[in-house]
């Protein structure tokens, strides 16, 4: 692969992405490195990160506030699709990658860069997500991944950075690798690499231990409009405020922790801990509302679509033709998914205790066993005869 002259680098302010700046210039002959830090609600002070990039040798240091787009354009469609990878992980980290890729491609166009770069290693999923998303958005851009190629240990990377004036981490580095955004946190590495080891309470930041949760439940009513969460307890909220408040309320009751061994795209298994309080409850509530407003055949067919959809997000195919086609199906189903779901939060559990919709297909007069029953019981006998006919014929043939 030919090297590039001007590169836009996805930048977090950590050791690897900081060292990427001098490495790209010294080892790969890049003339100019422009860094881009995406604000996805990770809570970091972004001004020091912006300044660190400049002091590490970047010619331009960009900070993009992408929180609104992150929720509206990435999280909400995933909620509409009830996207849970391996039926457990709501893709809080994976959803950020196609957005960051888009920001990189847009910045490369604006600044006339011929390449973009990231600090991913060769063992994770993120390298695939970035590389494939960038190729989908602009196949002419080169993608550079120095950390995938430089072969340096953590200590060697820090020493390399120090040669070019990048300070080593001030405090003893945590043994954990943590990624945070508005949707949640992912925690891996250190003691967690042993799947038998129980996570220490110290790793959690968004969810309380059960022993510390309130002794009274919190009931939250989540309002949806065409599959998109729009209100809490009747208060219409913007996307960021809705997710932020729900994270706080759900996490306060110890809901939203996931401890799983997942199958990475690169073929290895990885033990991951996630905290995704709001996202898990939103998917739970949304799926329940669908049970009230979608017909049986659409509900059942959509389950298979959801599994494929979540795999595509996890595997970096957000901008693929199949994902686009599935989006059209999901959006069509969501035209009737409006209403309110009541969730009880208590001692580590989120329980759906009520749901209502003006588009509800639930008919009390048909469902009741009381005097108001309007179901035609006599119709059942003929239906059962026709429904069971293939089974009856098969049985008569094979019992001879």
UniProtKB/TrEMBL annotation:
Domain Arginosuccinate synthase C-terminal: residue ranges: 176-394
Reaction equation(s) it catalyzes: L-citrulline + L-aspartate + ATP = 2-(N(omega)-L-arginino)succinate + AMP + diphosphate + H(+)
Residues engaged in binding ATP: 10-18, 38, 119
Subcellular location: Cytoplasm
Main subcellular localisation: cytoplasm
Pathway assignment: Amino-acid biosynthesis; L-arginine biosynthesis; L-arginine from L-ornithine and carbamoyl phosphate: step 2/3
MF GO annotations: argininosuccinate synthase activity; ATP binding
Keyword field contains Cell membrane: no
E.C. number(s) listed in UniProt: 6.3.4.5
InterPro entries in UniProt: Arginosuc_syn_C, Arginosuc_syn_N, Arginosuc_synth, Arginosuc_synth_CS, Arginosuc_synth_type_1_subfam, AS_cat/multimer_dom_body, Rossmann-like_a/b/a_fold
Positions that bind L-aspartate: 121, 125-126
Entry annotated with the keyword ATP-binding: yes
GO cellular component: cytoplasm
Residues engaged in binding L-citrulline: 89, 125, 129, 177, 186, 262, 274
Boundaries of every Arginosuccinate synthase-like N-terminal domain copy: 6-167
Biological process, per Gene Ontology: argininosuccinate metabolic process; L-arginine biosynthetic process; urea cycle
PROSITE patterns: ARGININOSUCCIN_SYN_1, ARGININOSUCCIN_SYN_2
Top class in the EC scheme: ligase
Keywords: Amino-acid biosynthesis, Arginine biosynthesis, ATP-binding, Cytoplasm, Ligase, Nucleotide-binding
Family statement: Belongs to the argininosuccinate synthase family. Type 1 subfamily.
Classification via NCBIfam families: argG (TIGR00032), PRK00509.1 (NF001770)
Description of how the protein assembles with itself and partners: Homotetramer.
Protein name listed in UniProt: Argininosuccinate synthase
Annotated source species: Leptolyngbya boryana NIES-2135
């Amino acid at each position: 692969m030919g090297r590039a002259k001007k590169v836009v680098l996805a930048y977090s302010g950590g050791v690897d992405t900081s060292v990427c700046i001098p490495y790209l210039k010294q080892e790969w002959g890049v003339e100019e490195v422009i860094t881009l830090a995406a604000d996805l609600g990770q809570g970091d002070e972004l001004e020091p990160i912006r300044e660190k990039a400049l002091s590490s040798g970047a010619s331009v240091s960009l900070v993009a506030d992408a929180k609104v787009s992150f929720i509206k354009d990435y999280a909400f469609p995933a909620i509409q699709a009830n996207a849970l990878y391996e039926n457990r992980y709501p893709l809080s980290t994976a959803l950020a990658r196609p957005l960051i890729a888009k920001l990189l491609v847009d910045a490369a166009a604006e600044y006339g860069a011929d390449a973009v770069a990231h600090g991913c290693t060769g063992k994770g999923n993120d390298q695939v997500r970035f590389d494939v998303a960038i190729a989908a958005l602009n196949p002419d851009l080169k993608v550079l991944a120095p950390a995938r190629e430089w072969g340096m240990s953590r200590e060697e990377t820090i020493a390399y950075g120090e040669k070019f004036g990048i300070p080593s981490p001030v405090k003893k580095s945590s043994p954990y690798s943590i990624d945070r955004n508005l949707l949640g946190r992912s925690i891996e590495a250190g003691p967690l690499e042993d799947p038998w080891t129980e996570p220490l309470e110290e790793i959690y930041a968004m969810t309380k231990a059960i022993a510390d949760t309130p002794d009274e439940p919190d009931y939250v009513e989540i309002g949806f409009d065409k599959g998109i969460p729009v209100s809490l307890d009747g208060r219409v909220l913007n996307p960021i405020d809705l997710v932020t408040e729900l994270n706080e309320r759900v996490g306060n009751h110890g809901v939203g922790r996931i401890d799983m061994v997942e199958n990475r795209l690169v073929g290895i298994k990885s033990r991951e801990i996630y905290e995704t309080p709001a996202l898990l409850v939103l998917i739970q509530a949304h799926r329940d509302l669908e049970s009230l407003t979608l017909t049986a055949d659409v509900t059942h067919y959509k389950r298979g679509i959801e599994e494929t959809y979540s795999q595509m997000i996890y595997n970096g195919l957000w901008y693929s033709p199949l994902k686009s086609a599935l989006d059209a199906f999901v959006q069509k189903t969501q035209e009737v998914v409006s209403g309110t779901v009541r969730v009880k939060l208590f001692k580590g559990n989120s329980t759906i205790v009520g749901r209502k919709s003006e588009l509800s297909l639930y008919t009390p007069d048909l469902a009741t066993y009381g005097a108001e029953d309007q179901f035609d019981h006599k119709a059942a006998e003929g239906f059962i005869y026709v429904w069971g006919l293939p089974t009856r014929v098969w049985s008569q043939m094979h019992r001879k």
